[in-house]
Amino acid sequence: xxxxxELKVARWYFGGVASAMxxxxxxPLDLLKVHLQTSFAEQGGHVQATLLTTTSSIVRSQGVxxxxxxxTACLLRQLTYSTTRFAVYEAIKQRLVTIDPNDPKGIPNMPxxxxxxxxxxxxxVGGFVGTPADMVNVRMQNDIKLPYNERRNYAHxxxxxxxxxxxxxxxxxxxxxxxxxxxxxxITIGQISMYDQFKYMMMKYAPNVFEDNLNTHFSxxxxxxxxxxxxxxxxxxxxxxxxxxxxxxxxxxxHCAGTVFKECGPLGFFKGYVPAFxxxxxxxxxxxxxxxxxxxxxxxxx
Length: 302
Prior knowledge:
Helix content is 69%, strand content 3%. The chain is mainly α. It has a single domain, classed as Mitochondrial carrier fold (Alpha/alpha barrel). The strands form two sheets. The protein has a two-stranded antiparallel ribbon. Helix 1 packs antiparallel against helix 10. The radius of gyration is 20 Å and the shape is elongated. The mean pLDDT is 87. It comes from Tetranychus urticae.
């Protein structure tokens, strides 16, 4: 690998492709997270579901293939949401990044506050664009929990979007868009801006250990995944409930948050944290590993 591989920049679609590749590997954990987050609301808050019991129940009743229920919607979400947020962030980054003439390593960088602002804006745009696919993804993942006569039975992501449009209207496709957009802004700060910052600090302050290679990409993305999970879990719980609820159940984010607090207490906002971290950690690591390999091998020179 070239010593100046950090001077290669990503093409606009690399983030979406990398995210879809990562999501294909971690989808079962995303499905389990959704089931844990909705279990209290649907069963009165009295069932102490765990990752192991939920997995066992799904496999026993539906088979292993059920763990991939909603995969098409998951991929569509990544190809809309993640493509948008990575593309916008990279466009901003490539215009603001500079090389410090006093830095002997000559590592491209921009101030941390600019990374955070760029990530927040990019995530918000991506979250809004990806809301329809995200809602269908949640519904398809949760379908196997419902009685047979109540299942939506979407054939695939596009069928789900079309059915929602026909039966519930276009506005329903963006149900939960506010919470999804807020969560996307936070998760993009936690993932992309923190990844960039961790990577820069590692390469700048420990150049003998970290270069623009797999070791650095793995370490920085693992730390970014931990940051992103902690920042976004409360909004993720609210978003999942609002998207899965029938029309009229929640009047808005505040009402949904109040319901979660009343039913489950403060810890209810972190329901499913372990599977969320188990999913988001590997997904973040895989996303950035795939992203960096695409950038290094197929990116364009700065």
